[in-house]
# Entry
Amino acid sequence: MLVAIISLAAFAATVALTIRKVRTLDQDARSARRSTVLSVAFFAVLQLVVGLYAAMGGIANDVLSPLVLNAVLTGCAWLNLERDLVRERLLQIAGPAGRFAHPLIACVILLFLAGAGATLGLEIPSNHNLLWMYPLCLLLEWSLITAIMAGVFFISQRRHTPPAVVAVLMSILGIVEYFIITFKSMPIAPGDISALSTAMAVAGTGYSYILSPFCLYGMAFMAISVQLCRMAAMLRPQRDRGDRRALLINLMVGIACLVGVGAHVTLVDYYNTLSIQVYTWRPLESYYRQGFLPSFISGAQTIKPPVPEGYSVEDAKELISDYAGRYDAEQGATVERSQAAAQFEDEKPTVITIMNETFSDLSIYQNLHANYQGPQFFKSLSDTLQRGVLYVSAFGGGTCNTEFEYLTGNSMAFLGTGTYPYTIYDLTRTETLSQQFKDLGYDTTAIHPNHGTNWNRENVYNAFGFDNFLTIQDFQDAEKLRGMVTDAATYDKILQMLDENPNPQFIFDVTMQNHSGYDTGLIPTDKQVNYVIDGISDPEVNEYLALIEESDRALEDFVNQLRKIDRKVILVFFGDHQPFFPDDYNEAWFANEDAAIHNERLWQTDYIIWANYDVAGRDQESGVDDLSINYLGSVLMNLIGAPRPPSRCARRSLRSTPRVTKTRACVGIFPAWPPRRTSRRAARAPRRPRRARITPRCSTTSCSETERTSIPRCTSPPRTRPIPTWRPVPRRSSNPAIRRPDMRSSSPPAVRCSVYPRHLAGGFFYG
# Structure
């Protein structure tokens, strides 16, 4: 409430100054100063909006930040009211007859300062320690923003409004970035632009849009930038309207600035030339160290994966055939596999996959210092075919990427950070699990009890071979929790489908119940939990944990129902990603541990594969196998004896054989994980990360001499170069086969053989 009082008092002061100034002007002067009044109105309205928003509880309580912001806004308003005096003083200094008789140079200096203000307005809301940024990256971002502002400034014939709009947009973008990081622990990525409809669909549910003090500081810098743009416009010379020479010069300078920005962004390789990269597993680290714009541009440039040197479709198919043949001759020829295959051919069991929204076991974080034991039924189910840790490519959000990896078997490691294949790529030729079951005579159904447009699923599922897609329209009367359709309601729908359709079915259920945010306060009293973590009862954490307990109960009821039905069913159950907040606990409670282990903890959930019948050749004793999500489909089909296309056989072979890169020199690369950052909620300054290293190793014991010398179709060994002093991470290898390993496998992390797809939508990815 203090912020509201300060802001509204400052608004009143600004209005009083304006009225007092207007009253001193005669009628002619009032008409001539309408533009000035409009400029003053901008700062006054901003004060009013901040005050009203604070009164509604939308701004964190603080004293210094509202004082700074309102002092700046009132000061800028006063400078506009005293426009004649300010312009006179500027001309005395930088006018044609001034002490520094270079008005154009002074104008450019003011634009550079305005660009600095806009840059700070963009960064400060989410990036609180600019001293931690790489100086050259900060300079690059400053230069880009300044060039854009200068371009529109000169194109508009040196008027202040266009560059001021750019500064305001940068500030808005900075605040949006702050909220995205708060809700997802992930920055804005290029792929988010194509997913705006999905974001808007969930934006109003369970999220608290509370501005931090740093957001107010960012607005203050934005206001300073706007005022500097206006001062730069004051140095505009008075010309005749017919002065075409000046008009053309301004246009040429403005166009040159904008074309230069466009050329730099499109022609300069940020990834390889500037060593600006976005870490796949720690993207916030990249944005904090390199700045928003450089990181965003680098991500946008790498949305389309580069084609490896020497790649050809024929060689890719040959590799697939080679590895598939190895699997058929070794793992595929076991007695257990033969028994399961014969049973599958006779029984054709229904396969149900539940990808449970944000389902994870947070007891891995030292039981949350609150004796939290995790989802008990899920952990205690003892008759599964297989279970284990599941390594995923999403954290805090990005559900579609987990389901993309599961359904296609492709690895997101080939596509980079902030990429959402569902919304970016043409997936009509992609091999999918659903299409494979459809080819086996199965009826295929996808379920998502929300809008079918989310993540473009209505189009993607059609391309993936699903016969039916059940959306929120099919759950109008379903039970809801926090306004979301419950897990139990989707399970009831599945049981209904099993009862009504005797044909073998493949059902893929993407639940919605546990979706963030977790600040709704709508959990019924009988379902609430209260875990006190280090003396603090966090309502968001408790709401999430209550939802997980409810999911666990629904799963138990569902499994018990499946045990009773008179048909054979396979159940695959896993979470798509963790919620956003464990990042804080990971940083606070697991300091000074190995970087790979530290990061691994955030990018994992759990899975089970369960059957309501005895699968031939398999012991249903809950054997443990930790794996990456892109392997789960292949593992499933192998366990139940389902026929598999060559691509899935190849994946199984790659996962089980010595994992090396097949190149001319047979080189394995072990990249260090990116350095950690401090928690976004931590008050202390972030630690400076250790320098990462790349260590090339030759795996001569794992490859035959023929393989090392006669296979030219794969990429050459990765090249390395000296690490710039201002970049603590190495240049990424040119080898696209590098992928995040199954970090808990018995063998050490190594590079796996890879082939590049002919077309991203219909190709083959091996991780």
Notes: The chain has 28 helices and 13 strands. The radius of gyration is 30 Å. Residues 658-767 have pLDDT under 50 and may be disordered. Residues 349-656 form a domain with the Alkaline Phosphatase, subunit A fold (CATH 3.40.720.10).
